[in-house]
Amino acid sequence: MKFSSKVLQCQFSPIRKFYPYTVKAEKQGKKIYYMNIGQPDIKTPPEFFDAIHNFCDPVLEYAPSAGIPDLIRAVRNYYRNIGVGIKSDDILITNGGSEALLFTMMAILDEGDEVIIPEPYYPSYSTFVAATGASVVPIPTTAEEGYHYADRARIEAKITPRTRAILITNPGNPTGTVLSLDELRMILDVAIQHQLFVVADEVYREFIYNDSPMSSIGIFEDGAEHVVIIDSVSKRFSACGARVGALITRNRELREHIMKFCQARLSVPTLDQLGAIALYSVGPEYFATVREEYRARRDIVYQKLQQMEGVVCGEPQGAFYVTCRLPVSDAEQFQIWLLTEFDDNGETLMFAPAKSFYATPGKGLSEIRISYVLNRSALERSMEILEKALLAYKAHQE
Amino acid sequence: MKFSSKVLQCQFSPIRKFYPYTVKAEKQGKKIYYMNIGQPDIKTPPEFFDAIHNFCDPVLEYAPSAGIPDLIRAVRNYYRNIGVGIKSDDILITNGGSEALLFTMMAILDEGDEVIIPEPYYPSYSTFVAATGASVVPIPTTAEEGYHYADRARIEAKITPRTRAILITNPGNPTGTVLSLDELRMILDVAIQHQLFVVADEVYREFIYNDSPMSSIGIFEDGAEHVVIIDSVSKRFSACGARVGALITRNRELREHIMKFCQARLSVPTLDQLGAIALYSVGPEYFATVREEYRARRDIVYQKLQQMEGVVCGEPQGAFYVTCRLPVSDAEQFQIWLLTEFDDNGETLMFAPAKSFYATPGKGLSEIRISYVLNRSALERSMEILEKALLAYKAHQE
């Protein structure tokens, strides 16, 4: 039997190849600080669990394919509060932001089509694009420039007759870069001029640490038919296991097409949606507390990285990631060495080598992504281990 | 902006077009007996909710992409109990059976490829196939033959160089037909001989009312690499809103490819998986009780249909559907008439016109699918309404 040409283009999770090494390291009694994942340690608001405990129907039924109306209203109200004037009809509830991304790509991409994505980018994007037979056209960035890409000429240079969309993550995963309102406007203008979609993954919207106001590309009224917002409760409310996302677009035709996929997969989990409704009742003090915690963590990681010889990174402004270049030629080899040969007092660490965040062959080999989803003392210790490890690795290689 | 050629081939849910009529009928005070949906009224076992209430971690984290190991073990043990000797590695937990179907099609189909499906079939199948750019090649059946299709010559007549898979539903939705072990063996032999996959949607496995033992195409050891089983807790445990399905295959290469999609979408709902683990502890008496209830309902519907002049159907052997031909030229027009012009004592009914269960243009126009997911007295009353309506409709048309 043959497999589809599309699945053959898809890649495994970049983390997968390190799994045997982590198992072995832990068997040997090593403690590993896991800084490779995007799973926050912040408590899920208890309102979520309370709502689920209050469910007392005898039958757990399918929810409507577009989502439970009360959840759609909660999402609509959340957006209105940040200045995005959407209607309930503009919202489809999805199985996480992931399904919103997959369905968007399935609705707009044919084989040979192209999606422009600044690199480094979240690796699942390339699977969602490749699954349709289309390909990622990367906008290159550098660690020295803080992975900045929002330059009109740089974006337009990548547009071809096969370009269908520009996919941005704001705040950025894995880079932590945050786009200004002017930059968002410019990207939308490019999309309008060239008749493209802008797919804006804004799942980290609440996590901004500079003085930029929290924002969304959805605030612009003109050109709204070009905009698709990918959203999720996963990061916003530390409820990753709930699989409740949303696709938001004022392009009625696109929404109708995607509704066909929503109908075919029937519904999103009923209980998780009821929990998500309650999450949207959580007040601004919740976000302020979480933001301050992440900001403190960001500061620890960034300050320590700056003090390490040969490490290059800009100050991340949002999300909970920092990507940096290490003074090593191959970060994957360094990671394997950390798991197999190195320890400091029985402890070592795991980050995400950045090679798989790039589409351009040979790029990102020296770079890593660090997730600051551990508590502050664990982060202090992790940075200490990284510093010692870099020195030991240098000595080891000489 | 353009949309993908694939989404343009996908259809909306067939129910959608009747929605405005049902809203209007209910506004007028009509009571509608809904026999158009596959949402059972059977209670979800309380073990499901208890397991979720017992969850007390502070953070609702992502589950592993392949599924929670305890759930995978529960599914494996369930299969071993019915004689299917699979290993844990052969199982991927999915967002309902729907995701298992979509990912399978994405992994094996390219544009122009073909999937053989007996018609009438579950309409979402055509969306999952069309979403990849492939097409459905139907095996025609007739109401007179009880929608029987398991004939080697009839299946082989549909095989072309572009055929990649045979997709079967057993027990059948919408027909209620059940395949014998010999028939399953024959279909597998065809797949082996022609190097095809057999995708077997077995989500109604527990609901068989003749003397056939409950079975699975997974019991055959040889040719196991051709077999993909689609499974779900939705119907088995009346937990449709949980969105916990499974893809089971001993084809390691296929599983690895599909794992790429599982990793990209991260995980299946954590709490629903915990609930599903508890569901698999439910004993055989649960299934026996539910089966007897459905059998009694099936008997009511089938006996009444047989007594109606001009109605053609075979005795359905499984699932909770019966498809039949009515003495009307267009069942969709009859359905609209039922909602807009007819009532019996203020009551009317809704079924699923079968046209959209067919790929062949012009087929199924006079047919409907009835779901017997209402209690017995509601079913008695519904059949009474149908009989009166058919007489009134005949008079109305003369």
Briefly say what this structure is:
The structure is a homodimer of 398-residue chains. Chain A has 398 residues and is of the alpha/beta class. Chain A is built from 14 helices and twelve strands.
Map the helices and strands:
Two copies of one chain form a homodimer.
Chain A: H1 5-9, H2 19-27, E1 31-34, H3 46-53, H4 69-81, E2 91-94, H5 96-108, E3 114-118, H6 124-130, E4 135-139, H7 152-156, E5 163-169, H8 181-194, E6 197-201, E7 227-232, H9 233-236, E8 245-249, H10 252-264, H11 270-279, H12 284-307, E9 321-325, H13 331-340, E10 347-350, E11 352-353, E12 367-371, H14 376-397
Parallel strand pairs in A: 1-10, 3-4, 3-5, 5-6, 6-7
Antiparallel strand pairs in A: 2-8, 7-8, 9-12, 11-12
Molecular structure report:
Two copies of one chain form a homodimer. Helices cover 39% and strands 14% of the residues of chain A. Chain A is globular and about 60 Å long. Chain A folds into two domains: 5-43 and 285-393, Aspartate Aminotransferase, domain 1 (Alpha-Beta Complex); 46-279, Aspartate Aminotransferase, domain 2. In chain A, helix 3 packs across helix 11, helix 5 packs across helix 10 (252-264) and helix 12 packs parallel to helix 14. In chain A, helix 8 (181-194) links the parallel strand 5 and strand 6. In chain A, the strands form three sheets. Chain A has a seven-stranded mixed beta sheet with strand order 2-8-7-6-5-3-4, sandwiched between helices. With 398 residues, the first copy, chain A, is α/β, with parallel strands linked by helices. Chains A and B meet through helix 1, helix 3, helix 5, helix 6 and helix 10 of A and helix 1, helix 3, helix 5, helix 6 and helix 10 of B.
